[in-house]
Design a protein that fits this description.
Layout lengths: L16 E7 L11 E7 L3 H10 L6 E4 L5 E3 L4 E7 L7 E5 L5 E6 L4 H10 L2 E2 L11 H7 L2 E2 L2 E2 L4 E8 L4 E4 L4 E4 L2 E4 L5 E12 L2 H18 L19 H7 L6 E2 L2 E3 L7 E3 L5 H19 L8 E3 L4
Parallel strand pairs: 2-5, 3-5, 4-19
Antiparallel strand pairs: 1-2, 6-7, 7-15, 8-15, 9-10, 11-12, 11-15, 13-14, 16-17, 17-18
Length: 309
């Protein structure tokens, strides 16, 4: 598909906002990258269903929340990006038929907001979400976790949407789930639009204190004052990606405006004016160095997609 010849489809019934050649550097936490051919901000979930049903069958689709694990190459993405943050933003307390407390959160809700909401309602088990720099949708898609917690350990059920705009209720047993890995066993294109999190009644004050401690550890150990995408690589079994990269002497390594963080070697920061190519060059350099020195193939947590400039 040529980005300069955008797909046309019926938008008469839609209530959201459609733009063309949307700069993705505005929407990813690295603050770098090329444009999406089209971008849509739905009015709500019902409008998203209408939009997906109207899309041409072969249209590439990408759902984006806070863009905290994403890089679009400088040549852009020849498809449609759908923004969920600020749109799919409902979070509420529910009770399951068998008694456990459930927090319902839509895909555009930031993880830290879910953690705080649970604590304010005297529920425990979601504190780790305060350390996830993305939204519920992204956390579900990659089984995000930190400090001993993982997203799918607390999922009661998830709601997904397919390309035709149909909604599905999915249970954890319908997925292959592992460390930073989630895949629907039956296959097919579906995106997460919400989840019910199963939590345990407890003391909200203790949960809030745990959240404060977790955030303090993040501030002390991660370069939060510079644009970044969180951890670039998954930790290999029994080791840490940051340790391997640092052992290769790559802390502080530069490519244009991008830098492997001097504070945490598994972070690449935009030190000023970095292009997507600069960032990807450091990703590739770290992968090559660790492979050559340790024989370990690092696996990426971040997604890099699109076309070179």
């Amino acid at each position: 598909m040529n980005m300069h010849e955008p797909q046309r489809f019926d938008t008469a019934r839609l209530r959201g906002t459609l733009t063309e050649r949307e700069p993705m550097g505005r929407h990813v936490s690295w603050r770098a990258g090329g444009p999406a051919a089209r971008a849509y901000r739905p009015a709500d979930l019902a409008d998203l269903r209408e939009f997906l049903a109207a899309l041409p069958a072969g249209e590439p689709v990408l759902l984006v929340g806070l863009g905290s694990n994403l890089l679009v190459r400088d040549g852009g993405f020849a498809g449609t990006v759908i923004f969920t943050h600020g749109v799919l933003n409902r979070v509420q307390l529910e009770t399951a038929a068998n008694g456990p407390a459930l927090v319902y959160a839509e895909a555009g809700v930031p993880g830290p907001k879910v953690a705080r909401y649970a604590a304010l309602n005297d529920l425990t088990g979601a504190e780790f979400l305060a350390g996830i720099p993305g939204t519920v949708g992204g956390a579900l898609a990659m089984n995000a976790g930190c400090y001993g917690g993982e997203t799918w350990r607390i999922v009661e059920r998830a709601t997904t949407i397919d390309r035709s705009g149909q909604l599905h209720i999915r249970r954890p047993e319908e997925y292959d789930i592992d460390y930073r890995f989630v895949r629907l066993k039956s296959g097919g294109d579906e995106w997460f639009v919400a989840a019910h999190f199963r939590l345990t009644p407890g003391e909200g004050a203790r949960s809030r204190e745990a959240i404060r401690e977790l955030l303090g550890r993040r501030i002390a150990s991660q370069p939060l004052n510079q644009p970044n995408a969180g951890s670039v690589f998954r930790n290999p079994p029994g080791d840490y990606a940051a340790r391997l990269i640092e052992a290769c002497g790559l802390k502080g390594a530069r490519a244009g405006g991008a830098e492997i963080s001097r504070k945490h070697a598994n972070f690449i920061v935009n030190a000023g004016g970095a292009s997507a190519a600069d960032i990807e060059a450091l990703v590739l350099r770290a992968e090559q160095a660790v492979r050559e020195r340790f024989g370990i193939a690092l696996e990426r947590e971040v997604r890099i997609l699109g076309e070179d400039a």
